[in-house]
Amino acid sequence: MAHILIVDDETSISELLEITFRKEGHRVEVAGSGEAARRRLQSKIFDIVVSDIRMPGISGVDLLAYAKEVSPATRFILITGVPTVETAIAAINAGADRYVIKDHDLVDQLRRAVGSVDETVKLKNEAGYLRRELRRLTGQDNIIGHSAKMRAVFDLILTVAPQSSRVLITGESGTGKELVARAIHENSARAHTPFITVNCGAFPESLLESELFGYLKGSFTGAAESRQGLFQAANGGTLFLDEIGNMSPAMQVRLYRVLQEGKVRPIGSTEEIDVDVRVIAATNRDLEKAIAAGEFREDLFYRLSVIPIHLPPLRERREDVPLMVRAFLERFRTAMSRPIEGIEPAAMAQLEAYDWPGNVRELENTLERCVALETGKLISVGVLPEKIRFGTTTENGHATASNGHPSIPESGIDLERHIQDAERAYIVAALEACDGVGTHAAEMLKMSYRSFRHYAKKYNIT
After folding, report:
1. Which region among 216-220, 345-349, 420-424 has the lowest average model confidence (pLDDT)?
2. What pTM was estimated for this model as a whole?
3. How many whole angstroms separate alpha carbon 436 and alpha carbon 445?
4. Is residue 139 a contact partner of residue 150, using CB atoms and an 8 Å limit?
5. How many angstroms separate the CA atoms of 307 and 280, rounded?
6. Helices (H), 401-448
7. Which among 208, 210, 206 has a CA at the least distance from the CA of 225?
8. Are strands 307-310 and 167-170 parallel, antiparallel or unpaired?
9. In what order do the strands lie in the sheet with 27-31?
10. DSSP states of 113-148
11. Concatenated DSSP letters of 192-228
12. DSSP strand E in 27-132: where?
């Protein structure tokens, strides 16, 4: 039910409407003047305001204008006992949702008007909720994950996106820092303005300076024409500074000044140019350690890290791996027009057990390889890279998971099937390493040739 504010200097009307809407189940408050209603609007949020137009002091139209300023989402219904074309036009122009005449049918008219407006409020709230849920569940369009850690990241994105505060995204390489930066931009008021990225570690100092701030013709050798910098190109939008931890000390000084003053000065120019840019930075370095080592400016760190967001590595959210695998499989099988229908449980178990030092980027590349190599309808263990199939090898030659011990997914594992897949994978790998010579493959696996033939026949390996 709606939270309604009734505003009328006629006490009998206010009391009648209060009783009516309370019976309907709404929460109702009453104000006897425009000034009293204004104070209520300053301290509370109402879904609907029902106000008389003609009142001493602040009129209903003036109150409507004030409500639109402090609470744009509040719906407004104006009522009047002196209906004229002029008042109706004024009400509509001011943004009233409904215009109701005070007559013998006032209560019924208002009941219908409030019901209609309340339904509109509910639909808009539901639409907003569904949009937020869609963004959250789909990982802000391109960010995939449903683990608790990623849901916290999604919620933080939606919270900080509408603000203009600078954001520092930290995390290992391949965790999706640029995707998070783009999601923040696309969920902000700057969504229809430029989103420009620059990798600070990909440029030498002099070139990065000209890229960011621009230059005038003749300002240095090779400057055949004046060029706008990325700060100017991103004016009104968002500039994503990736690998900010690799920026040189001299560039850090210049960047700090830009962030502090909101102005850039192109190389060779004596004039500064105002820029309105939201800066989002990212790094895979521990900047606090870099500060302690004298490699990164502390004042710049605090300028950039107004809102910090840390992205967890994939090994800390293994429950997201199956969701990512399905998404990447769908993308690559469509792009390559391959008849892949899914992935074998044993292969999925191997993917979940692997530590993914390259994080999401490594998983994506692995699935692209698997789709390209698989000849059956399901991704099998045999097409997985060796480091995933066999893990790392210890000094005694035994294969283990990359963290030193087997990792079992939450859904459990079919141990017998897993062992069979591992046996088949080792037989195939040994044959490949020995150019198909069975006797040499048997020696590599420390078994008799008779046993090797038994396993090869068992798994239909020729």
Report:
1. 420-424
2. 0.57
3. 14
4. yes
5. 10
6. 415-433, 438-444
7. 210
8. parallel
9. 27-31, 3-7, 48-52, 75-80, 98-101
10. HHHHHHHHHHHHHHHHHHHHHHHHHTTTTT----SH
11. TS-EEEEEGGGS-HHHHHHHHHEE-TTSSTT--S-EE
12. 27-31, 48-52, 75-80, 98-101
Contact present, 61 and 78 (Cβ < 8 Å):
yes
How far apart CA 74 and CA 181 sit, in angstroms, is 32
Q: Which residue has the tokens 């420009």?
A: 196
CA distance 64 to 85: 18
Q: Where are the alpha helices (DSSP H) in 262-395?
A: 287-292, 298-304, 321-336, 345-353, 359-373, 386-389
Half-sphere exposure of 331 (CA within 13 A, CB side): 13
The two three-digit tokens of residue 58, written as one number: 């602040």
118-132, 310-324, 335-349, range with the lowest pLDDT: 118-132
Residue 462 Cα to chain centre, angstroms: 49
Instruction: Say whether 185 sits in a helix, a strand or coil.
Output: helix
- In this structure, the chain runs to a length of 462
Tokens of 363: 């998983």
Q: How far is CA 132 from the centre of its chain?
A: 11
Nearest Cα neighbor of 296 from 258, 241, 252 is: 252
As a whole-number percent, the residues of the chain with pLDDT over 90 amount to 43
